[in-house]
Known about the structure:
By secondary structure, the chain is mostly beta strands. 8% of the residues lie in helices and 33% in strands. The protein has helices at 34-47, 130-144, 217-220, and strands at residues 12-19, 53-56, 62-67, 107-108, 122-126, 154-163, 173-179, 191-199, 207-215, 226-232, 241-242, 250-251, 273-281, 287-291, 295-300, 314-322, 328-329, 346-354, 360-362, 378-385, 389-395, 399-400.
Amino acid sequence: MGTSKGIIFKLFVVVFCFSLNNYGSEGGRIGISKEEDTELERQLKILNKPPIKTFHTEWGDIIDCIDIHKQPAFDHPALKNHKIQMKPTFSPKRMITEKTLNVLEPEPSNIRIDGIECPEGTVPIRRTTKEDLIRAKSFSKTTNSSNFDNPSERAISAVIILENEDQGIKYFGASAEMYTYNPSVGEDQFSAAQFWIESGPTIFPLNSIQAGWIVTPQLYKDHLTRLFTYWTGNGSSVTGCYNTLCPGFVQIDPQILPSSPVDHTSTYGGKQYALNVYVSQAKTGDWWLITAHGRKIGYWPKALFNGLSEGADRLKWGGSVSLSEGGISPPMGSGHFPDGLPSHSCYITGIMYTGQHEELMNLGNSSVVGEINCKLYDLHNWGFIKGVGNAIEVGGPGGKCR
């Protein structure tokens, strides 16, 4: 798949609306049954293994260093006999070789480490509390439900979509450089910039991997801008979770984990920072999470998926937010509409996909214009920019969307 021959790129803007099923108010805890409490305790025993070493971070997380072979991932039934991979089988070369647009050169938004370094043979796992699990369940329903019955509670995503209409053509990875911001969100809202790797129906049994940055007190109980990931193998109905909140993602890096905060964020009209994220499938079928400077954080084993075991059907890049219980949406990106100035809205540049020969490919200039049915957000597709790759900018102030 080294060229675009035989491939139809459908690149369009769309808003996806997912209804929210409540589990609590403003991310809080409601009464749970004895059976639910017992199940939460069972999950905690799986997620919180005996640590070799523990770090208490400045931002409030407790990070445990766990034996790499005993980490929670291997409690997944499909991974009981999994042979751990310490590095991927690929080393793709970017198609961009020169910089010609100086205004699109933000400073790196590095992932915070702050002294975390697990001993050899161990990996960092964020310690989970019962409240974390309750909030995560509510958050997952907010962001991944596909029931349209309640139009007042939903998540909204302004994205571009790359999909192939020729049967049998697959995508094997996605990458992007996402300008980082710290939008103001309520306790039951989130705001993110991300990409999606998907196969199968858009509802059930959707196979999906997501990665990017997010601000969500409902998931982390703070307002920090953090790296985040999500996966599901069946439309979020049974399997899947954010970061390492369930068995599945195999942690490899001794310092950086999928829920780590970033050290700098952009300011409107001021200095800009960006986070590089790349997810690609290795020859083994495993999907690797890689950040700036080639840091290999870990991977989702092939066994977790059916539809993603041999590539993806479609890729998406853009911004996403969730409405509060009162139907109010938070700012997206910088909180300002795209106006063509890189210091004014959230740019996502270097948008590329991985071909079947492990090469990173540009999307090209083909595009189909779609519609955004929420006037409080917008997306501008710049297409291909020499030296930068494909680029978009997303943003908006939020408010009463409908």
